[in-house]
Amino acid sequence: MIAEPSPRSNRDLINKIRLIEGDLTAQSDVDVIVGSISTALKVDGSLNQSLIRAAGQQFDDFIVENIYKPRPGDVFEVPPYNIPVPHVFFAVTPDWKDSLDFEDRDLIRCYRGAMQMAEKMKLTRIAFPALGTGRKKYPLRRAARLAINGIMDRMTTHFEEVRIVCNRREQYDAFAEWLTHYGHENPAGK
Predict the structure, then answer these.
(1) Residue in 136, 116, 135 with CA at minimum distance from that of residue 126
(2) Could you write out the DSSP letters of every residue in 134-180?
(3) β-pairing, 125-129 with 75-78?
(4) Rounded CA separation 130/109 (Å)
(5) pLDDT tens string for the chain (190 positions)?
(6) Which of 35, 62, 150, 165 is spaced 20 to 30 Å from 107 by Cα?
(7) Is the model's pTM score more than 0.85?
(8) Domains delineated in the chain
(9) 39: nearest Cα among 13, 6, 76
């Protein structure tokens, strides 16, 4: 029988999540940043445009030439090129429709998959954007809840920090609300 984690250990793990408002591509003190990509391999949206500006055109070329038949929830590693971090992952985020087509399952798989890949690669500091909340039109509070659940499903003592980088204040507020709900002592990490 597997022992349930103690409430203290859950609190210790949730407190490894740090919430910031800023630019994902400026997170040079992490091992990996996670971007978002569509099943059509379109690298559009403000986040991806900033990643391409930082990495260079070869970044987009690598994606088109090396990722084959991506499905929502898949996670891929891409060379960082000129982005000042050792690793970049891309999660294939679902388009929001009505949650009847497994969008919730696929969005949570993005977070779980990136966490699992980071742990297998022995990476201890990972930075996520608010996946799905831009062009994918995911409801913000719902996306925040799913993100926290997906991260916590795969959070272990291996990780030093899991950062959620919000580029809009309303994203930050939604994530802070859910982190507080789950018992985070200081979501902003100040």
Answers:
(1) 116
(2) STT---HHHHHHHHHHHHHHH--TT-SEEEEEESSHHHHHHHHHHHH
(3) unpaired
(4) 14
(5) 333 444 446 788 999 999 999 999 899 999 999 998 887 776 666 776 777 778 878 888 888 888 888 999 999 999 998 888 999 999 998 888 776 668 899 999 999 999 999 999 999 999 999 998 877 778 899 999 999 999 999 999 999 999 999 999 999 999 999 999 888 887 765 5
(6) 62
(7) yes
(8) 21-181 (3.40.220.10)
(9) 76
What's the token pair of residue 109? 């798989």
Distance CA(145)–CA(63), nearest Å, equals 29
Kindly calculate the radius of gyration of the chain based on its CA atoms and give it in whole angstroms: 16
* Spatial separation of the C-alpha atoms in residues 6 and 177, rounded to whole Å: 23
C-alpha pair distances (Å), 47 with each of 94, 129, 131:
16, 8, 10
Residues in the chain: 190
